[in-house]
Amino acid sequence: MGSLFRSEEVCLAQLFLQSASAYSCISELGERGLLEFRDLNPKVSPFQRRFVGEVRRCEEMEKTFTFLQQELRAAGRLPAPCPESPRAPAAREALRVQEQSEQLAQELREVSRSRSSLRDRLRDLRQHLHVLREGQRFTSLPVGPGVPAGLGREPILDPSLHHHLDRKINFVAGVIHPWRVTAFERLLWRACRGYLVASFVEMPEPMEDPATGESITWVIFLISYWGEQIGQKIRKISNCFHCQVYGYPESEASRTEAITRLHGQIQELSTLEETEKYLAEVLDKVAQVLPTWRVQVQKMKAIYLVLNQCSFDVTKKCLIAEVWCPVRDLTQVQDALRQGSVSGSCFVQRVPTTESPPTLIRTNKFTAGFQSIVDAYGVASYQEVNPAPYAIITFPFIFAIMFGDVGHGLLMFLFALWMVLYEDSPRLRQGTNEIWLTFFEGRYLILLMGAFSIYTGFIYNECFSKATAIFPSAWSVATMANHSSWSSAYLATHPSLTLDPNVTGVFQGPYPFGIDPIWSLATNHLNFLNSFKMKMSVVLGIVHMGFGVMLGVFNHVHFQQRHRLVLEFLPEMIFLLALFGYLVFLIFYKWIKFSAADSRVAPSILIHFIDMFLFTSNAENLPLYPGQVPVQMVLVVLALASVPVLLLGTPLYQWCRQRAPRTVRPRAVGGFMGITRRGIQHDFAEIFMHQAIHTIEYCLGCVSNTASYLRLWALSLAHAQLSEVLWSMVMRNGFVGLSYVGGVVLVPVFAAFAVLTVAILLVMEGLSAFLHALRLHWVEFQNKFYVGAGYKLCPFAFAPDTWE
Amino acid sequence: MVSLLCCGPKMAACGLVLSAWGVVMLVLLGIFFNVHSAVLIEDVPFTEEDFKGGPERIYRLYEQVSYNCFIAAGLYALLGGFSLFQSRLNKRKEYMVR
């Protein structure tokens, strides 16, 4: 894992591929995922590239696959995911896949067509059958009490009964959609003026509507009329209402004959079953082969797209590809080429370049999270120092300072632990919710954040806003009470009592680890904590920033700009340490040297610091140590002197070097400030401007960034206060009830407390602290040394199938 | 036969987590109230009367609150058992449907 410190060496290389073996070589390289291909034909449109025919063929195959997929889905099957990743097919195999897929699609189309026509016919026959059967009811002879009385209509005139009438009675029978019945009836009545008798009855079983596919209970109608004109009108009206009209034979005998004939025809349609079976078989076959084919064709298309980016050398009859290749993997690339080519004729050759190569940092599942938060701000420039390995510890630690609470940290830690332990479970990995995926990707981050929060929770001595007395408190109230002889009258009139540490026995020494639990009972709790947390934030901030400046040394040394060590690093460090390093020293000195006995006359660091800059002194503010004033004067002068060195040092040095006779020395590949071949005058102004901006940014930044670290204090205060408010306003209500009912009341109160803790303190405060810790890293820490102007190496690899 | 399954898988999991947390935290709180921890004085519902005549009355109050905490912890244990039962039913239903 040596490359986590800085990105790997990446070189530009050329691949010489024989035309015959180009495809298999690229396939081999794609399986390994090592190289990034550069487009050598940027000006050529996609339609004019060399392999456009093959790409088009792949796309046609993909269209066929989409059709097959749709058919599968319509039949309610899901294709199984591809178990292992098949390799890209050779040309012959691709042809076979294409033929087979087209054949399957054709078969599928035919079978579906025949099946739907058979089903239509079956439906038609059954409707006819029902019409005839129901119609029987109306036209059959009344048999006495067996006649169903619920019809509500008079039986239609039966021609066999009323044959004495002159008119000939005709029938129109058919099927109509249930929603259109009333309109149909009304129109018939108005149009035919009562010269007909219409009966409607619902079909006993619902049937499919051919248009929409839903199951509807159709209504069968039987209209008996006399007169030709009426007949035509009725038929026209039925046509308008999209009714399916069937012939209705007049005599009973012919009706029964028609019914038996229909029964026979329905039996004949047993071929429908066979068609369904055949369709199922075809679908089975498709479901089996489709996933493999899809992956294969995807890979083939990717390879041809890459081949389109190569340039064809006519003289040597080979394809030339330009790639960015990590130097460490060159032997692997050579291996892959040898495997892919038939006669070992393909080879790779390194090519010098002045362009800046892409950045490659190899990470594992643990470091990937931290690298991604660094990359979110900016990908590291080529071979620049990578802040990620330090962020593994500093980021959770700075988060924890703002979040310190044992209970909340423990909850966060357990949540992350669950995610880490079950990280291989497919149920967790295949979540589609984006927010969940974000949390899952950062599970190691959250694990460390939780662990560090438990630690800072013990330091702040807070567990769900309550202090824990692991060690006995160092303050003794009894001693103070005895010393001051507090009487009951005194206690009644004074709501707040002072414990004076100067009285012997009241304060027995510092608490072994963290903050004394008695502070949670003190009214001046916040006064004490504020002073402590503010100083802690400033100290941590200056240490963090100093570390950032020191990381710059590695960059200066690596890019062979040693002049910057003396002309930039040294003035920067002197400025930072002389002013703010001195402040840190003052803080520690005062903590060590001054105790409660001198509390009335203890000097104020803030006033001293201000006086240091203004070169004044305050009589009431005692010096911290003898000789403080001259020391401070020297430090300020030193810091101010380092500013012009920082401002003018590097530009002047480079100007002098260019005026002196130049010695030709090969510069490091892709160095930062590559000024080799441009005009001198133009350069100097640019360099000077750049350096001026850098100086101003650095000096003013030192002051503002130090103050910016005070957010560590602010957020930890906010978290503590929110936690306390939640406890006192929610949880305390559960303890109010003194009878045993109070125990039952405590159950919903605790549930509310738990939900609010998770929602407000864990999620909201957690995200807030995360954001501020991130900002501190990105801005305050990284602008001391990081440029972040690079781009990532995106190797050509076959991505796992992301279908659906 | 009324279906015994009334919670979905996610609700059962939430119930389980809440119950586990509730049991642990309330048992610990009960223990701390029982040993008359000074840090928890603000949570004990005392009145002016209780400060007369020695700390005994305050201690009785502490113990009352601690018994309440234990009762609540017991109720959460029951709730946890119920959630576990529901999640088992959910798992069984998942297997049967497949």
From TrEMBL, chain A:
GO terms for molecular function: ATPase binding; proton-transporting ATPase activity, rotational mechanism. The keyword Ion transport applies. It is a multi-pass membrane protein. GO terms for cellular component: plasma membrane; vacuolar proton-transporting V-type ATPase, V0 domain. The chain crosses the membrane at residues 397-421, 538-557, 569-589, 631-653, 738-764. Residues 94-128 form a coiled coil. GO terms for biological process: vacuolar acidification. It comes from the Eukaryota. Keywords: Coiled coil, Hydrogen ion transport, Ion transport, Membrane, Transmembrane, Transmembrane helix, Transport. Belongs to the V-ATPase 116 kDa subunit family. Essential component of the vacuolar proton pump (V-ATPase), a multimeric enzyme that catalyzes the translocation of protons across the membranes. Required for assembly and activity of the V-ATPase. PANTHER family: V-TYPE PROTON ATPASE 116 KDA SUBUNIT A 3 (PTHR11629:SF21), VACUOLAR PROTON ATPASES (PTHR11629). This is V-type proton ATPase subunit a. It comes from Taeniopygia guttata.
Automatic annotation (TrEMBL), chain B:
Its main location: membrane. Keywords: Membrane, Transmembrane, Transmembrane helix. It is a multi-pass membrane protein. This is Ribonuclease kappa. One of its GO terms (molecular function) is RNA endonuclease activity. GO terms for cellular component: membrane. PANTHER family: RIBONUCLEASE KAPPA. The chain crosses the membrane at residues 12-33, 65-85. Belongs to the RNase K family. It is found in: Membrane.
